[in-house]
Amino acid sequence: MATFTAQVKDELSRVEGECPQCKYAQLSAIVRICGTLSFRGSGHYSVHISTETGAVARTMIKLTHELFDLDTSLTVRQSVLHKTRNYLIEIGEQEQLEEDLMRLGILVPGMGLARGVPAHLLDQECCRRSFLRGAFMAGGFIADPRRDFHLEIAVTGEQLAQDLVELLAGFDVHARLNHRRGSYAVYVKSFEGVVSTLRAMGGALSARAVDVVRRVKRDKNNANRQTNADMANLRRTTDAAGSQMLLVEKVRSLPEYRSLSPALREFCTLRTQNPELSLAQLGELCDPPASKSAMYHRVLRLQTLLADHEERQ
Questions:
Q1: 54-67 vs 4-12: helix axis angle to the nearest 10?
Q2: Is residue 16 exposed (0-12), middle (13-18) or buried (19+ Cβ within 10 Å)?
Q3: How are the residues of the chain apportioned to helix, strand and coil, as percentages rounded to the nearest 5?
Q4: Cystine design at 173: which of 36, 168, 239, 263 (Cβ 3.0–4.6 Å)?
Q5: Closest by CA position to 4, among listed 192, 140, 110
Q6: Are the CB atoms for 166 and 64 separated by under 8 Å?
Q7: Helices (H) and strands (E) in the chain, counts
């Protein structure tokens, strides 16, 4: 069964951008995060993209062919140990590759590799959504919402990580940054943040799935809380009833029992016959019915009677 991360990436791979620039933004993020750029002298570049997600490989090849006239090769490797596939896409040295990398904001003329997000590709909100979508597809992980609400995007380069945090802030998502052994994780750990991020990237179905899981969790937690409260009330009722049963037994052994008022004698009889009922329920059996407060005062009067007897002994 595919992981939830794989399901989300598959959905995102089918989302189309709203303007022509969106494709450049999405491809830029994919190449930047899961690609390796090789340099062999002036103007001689090659790109290698490695991913374990078929949806990412398909999207990478599709966008590369749609946007640029570049030759690409795909190699699929099967891991016997982990039972996973690894997709290796290679874009060898080609005459226009350097220019295309500049178009994607991977290279900056006269400065080499770009450090942050390609600002010239992200003027429109739809393009910013597309860049986030490509970034998650390339380096994203989302936990199964049945266990935890956690989404993250792993990148190399602090500036790119900080820019992703700012991009998410533009969609009212509070993301945090964690430094991990030379890489950075931009992560979100709240239901609201995870759902907002999925919606910002275009993952409407995935966002809805997370919302459904959350509602199930909430209903289950409410049911558990109610059950725990009911059990606690039952324990309190049982403990109180047990103490009252013992009190009645002791009072019945006293000489004063014969002179008790009808109300107190009624309480003793009802409590003995109904050990499982609360005071309020016991009061409903009285003739006429008595309130919980009235029943409690009868208990206090019996306790006082017993205490006075024991003092005289």
A1: 20
A2: exposed
A3: 55, 15, 25
A4: 168
A5: 140
A6: no
A7: 11, 10
pLDDT value of position 170: 94
In the chain, the amino acid numbered 104 is: L
> What distance in Å separates the CA atoms of residue 269 and residue 13, rounded to the nearest whole number?
74
Instruction: Tell which residue, 87, 91, 104, 92, has the closest CA to residue 23.
Output: 104
- Which residue type, as a one-letter code, is found at position 240? A
Give the closest residue to 275 by CA, choosing from 308, 248, 312, 257. Answer: 248
Q: Which of 151, 150, 125, 146 is nearest to 136 (CA)?
A: 151
Q: What does the alpha-carbon distance between residue 240 and residue 234 come to, in Å, rounded to a whole number?
A: 10
Collapsing DSSP to helix, strand or coil, 181 comes out as: coil
Beta bridge partners of 79: 84
Q: What is the dihedral of CA 50, 55, 61, 66, to 10 degrees?
A: -150
Q: What is the CA radius of gyration of the chain?
A: 35
Query: What's the predicted TM-score (pTM) here?
Result: 0.71
Closest CA to 60 of 95, 99, 79, 34: 34
